[in-house]
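hi! just following up on the protien thing from before. the input was this:
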Amino acid sequence: MKDYMVRAVAAKGALRAVAATTTRLVEEARRRHGTSATATAALGRALTAAVLLSAGLKDRGRVTVRVAGDGPLSPVVAEASVEGHVRGYLRNPTFDLSPNAQGKLDVAGGVGRRGTIHVVRDLGLKEPYVGSSPLVSGLIAEDLTYFLHESDQTRSACALGVLVDVDLAVRAAGGFLVEALPPAEEEAVGRLEGNLVRMASVSALIDEGKSPEDILTAALEGLGVKILGRSPLEFRCRCSRDKARALLAALGEEELRDMLAEGRSEMTCRFCNERYLFSGDELAEILESLETS
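and the predicted 3d structure came back as:
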């Protein structure tokens, strides 16, 4: 199943919902960063959270989620654009933890339970919208729910899940977000809460082959769900060799001379771990262009 996102409304427009499968893009992130099982789960949840928030973008822009806790994996950073391009990274990608008391991957222990979740919505305007709130669990879904309540004054329900196989590959990943828009009736909210209690975990549903439409149908059962649209998702970074070259030029002549003395330079994109090697001849060319400009 290819990764994609579905947007919907229910309860005569009082509930706004989005669900996504992100298995392939999370696997690509795992492969690029060489993440441990716990790191894969943390990064995958953050990537999916950014995807869900990007559903609120209109014609352009991107959303960045930065989870900065006191755990060894923080900060965890994820970005999703309106085009469905997703990328991200985290600190100490190979660091792993023992399972928690419930026998599950200890995402909260890796992220940390004390800290802040930051959300930046860049709509292509002069200034992006920036909001933040304290972490409440380090599990990311609960932290995002609290953020939406505190920052956007929106009641919501969020679920994020990543199922990692024994060979460390991603077996299933995805999530959903349902927001209650005023004036949402308490009956509709109560029906939603009852549905969510009966549902299996989102990663288990995706592992069973359930689609984003299936997940929203289950979450919004009896509430008149209406699918509004679907959009594809993929792991894709905005870095390039030309951008890496421009960054080298921005370092200035003195630092370039030091690099030239070493004979080469290597730059690595932290979002996708792509490496860009520049030979001595290329460094000399960049330096010459600065000296003659």
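The first helix runs from residue 23 to 33.
The longest strand covers residues 170-180.
cheers
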